Structure formats: C-alpha cells, structure tokens
Amino acid sequence: MESARGRVDGRSAEAAEYRKLYDTARWKRLREAVRAEQPLCVMCLRDDVVTEADVVDHIKPHHGDHLLFFDMSNLQPLCKQHHDRDKQQMERGTYIEFGPDGWPVE
Ligand SMILES: [Zn+2]
C-alpha cells in the first residue's frame, strides 16, 4: 500500500516489509513443512518435555533477509512460552550464541 504522506519512518517501513514476508504463500508452505516434520517444541524436547509447537521461529534473526527468512535450516518449531521467552531475552539484550549444529548454545 502506497502512503500519500510521503516518507514513513524506517522502523515501521521495515516492520511492514516483514509482515509481507509472513503473508507469502512461500512462507506458509515452509512453515507447514517445518511443522509436518517436527510438530513439537524443540526447546521443550531438549528438556524431555513434549509440547505441541505454536510458532515456527527463525533461529538466526532474518532482519528481512530473504535467504535467512526462507531457509528451512534456519527454522525451529517452538511453543508460545519458549518463543516469548526468547523474544524477552533479546529485548533484554542477552546475546544468543549459535553452536556448529546451528542451535543456540545455552
Ligand atoms: Zn517449549
């Protein structure tokens, strides 16, 4: 949607771009493929807890990068609790380190 008011601030323009990515058929297919392969929260599984995943999360933040966004190896199914906990950690500025297997190191 074009804005008649001219410039929008960078952050909301970026957020709007992200939302467009989540609206694509490509993303919806990818998300379903991830959940078909692993319907359980991978973080719960590491603690031997079985929880159905609510969201498909990007392991490395994509920042609008299409390669990272559509990279199946960059996706993990998470329950809402783990997804929200992760986001809160990022907001607090906790650095998340990734191991050689691509999973966050705790
Ligand atoms: Zn979980």
From TrEMBL:
Keyword tags = Endonuclease, Hydrolase, Nuclease
Please indicate which superkingdom the organism of origin belongs to. Bacteria
Q: Name one GO molecular function term.
A: nucleic acid binding
Q: Name one Pfam family in it.
A: HNH
Entry-linked InterPro entries: HNH (IPR002711), HNH_nuc (IPR003615)
Q: Where is the HNH nuclease domain?
A: 29-84
Q: Where is the signal peptide?
A: none
The family database entries (SMART domains) matched by this protein are listed as:
HNHc (SM00507)
Recorded family membership = Belongs to the HNH nuclease family.
Q: What is this protein called?
A: Putative HNH nuclease YajD
What is the protein's species of origin? Answer: Ancylobacter polymorphus
